[in-house]
Write a sequence for this structure.
């Protein structure tokens, strides 16, 4: 019998669920005032993937994650609440679970049961004048997923492959993204990184050039996003089962890569990898 998850096994996120390119937002009306919905996801798991899965289970909605927010209470006593901005893939679906709309721009702070919800809405809709600069990034705007998927589709065409409209989003923030896109011939992975992992693209390109046997093929690079698209490596995914042989093979391949890299130290360090001082 599977154990029922407890509050100690889950993390709670308050959700800013938008539709209509940021023009519609799901807000709940409760006796104590307006509030944002909450989703509870397994602890120590990928947040974006877990939130999308829970939104599907709870609301039967296909969603994508945009970026997380942390909001403090003005009294500096009540603590910080974690929020995540999400979008509905099909705008009309939000009306199915929330047929009545509210003009959020006209709602005042005292209409909310928790002022932090109001502050989160302001930040998400950019109604506040003091948006933190850390929220900025190539994927911090509504419609970011559509921009990414359109670019992926464009880059797949020369390969004779098409996106089959399935995807698995694992990481999402203003400057980070990790998404697996299913295609008519296998899958591809889109990855983008911001600080402090800005150098990962250059390192990945260098390793792919030096050791193509050990690296997935790079399909295309989007320098403005610090992003790249690769084919999916063949073989068994380590998170798909508990086959010890697969883990041993992965460890062996990693060891082979490390040995092969010994003679390329200068080249790898020149791409931005950090070395360790000796002596």
């Amino acid at each position: 019998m599977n154990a029922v998850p407890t509050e100690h096994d889950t993390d709670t996120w308050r959700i800013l669920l938008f539709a209509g390119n940021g023009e519609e937002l799901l807000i709940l009306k409760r006796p104590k005032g307006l509030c944002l919905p909450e989703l509870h996801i397994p602890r120590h798991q990928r947040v974006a993937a877990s939130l999308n899965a829970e939104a599907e289970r709870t609301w039967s909605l296909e969603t994508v994650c945009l970026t997380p927010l942390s909001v403090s209470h003005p009294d500096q006593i009540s603590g910080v609440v974690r929020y995540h901005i999400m979008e509905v893939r099909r705008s009309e679906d939000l009306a199915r679970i929330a047929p009545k709309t509210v003009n959020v721009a006209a709602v005042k702070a005292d209409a909310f049961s928790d002022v932090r919800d109001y502050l989160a809405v302001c930040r998400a809709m950019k109604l506040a004048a003091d948006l933190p600069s850390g929220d900025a990034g190539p994927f911090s705007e509504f419609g970011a997923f559509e921009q990414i998927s359109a670019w992926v589709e464009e880059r797949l065409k020369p390969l004779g492959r098409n996106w089959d409209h399935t995807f698995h989003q694992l990481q999402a923030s203003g400057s980070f993204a990790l998404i697996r896109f299913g295609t008519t011939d296998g899958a591809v992975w889109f990855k983008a990184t911001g600080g402090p992992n800005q150098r990962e693209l250059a390192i990945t390109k260098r390793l792919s050039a030096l050791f193509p046997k050990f690296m997935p093929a790079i399909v295309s690079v989007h320098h403005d996003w610090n992003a790249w698209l690769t084919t999916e490596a063949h073989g068994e995914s380590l998170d798909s089962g508990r086959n010890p042989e697969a883990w041993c093979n992965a460890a062996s391949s990693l060891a082979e890569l490390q040995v092969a890299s010994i003679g390329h130290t200068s080249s790898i360090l020149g791409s931005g990898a950090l070395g360790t001082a000796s002596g």
Observations:
- The longest helix spans residues 244-260.
- The first strand starts at residue 10 and ends at 19.
- Residues 10-135 form a domain with the Nucleoside Triphosphate Pyrophosphohydrolase fold (CATH 3.90.79.10).
- The mean pLDDT is 89.
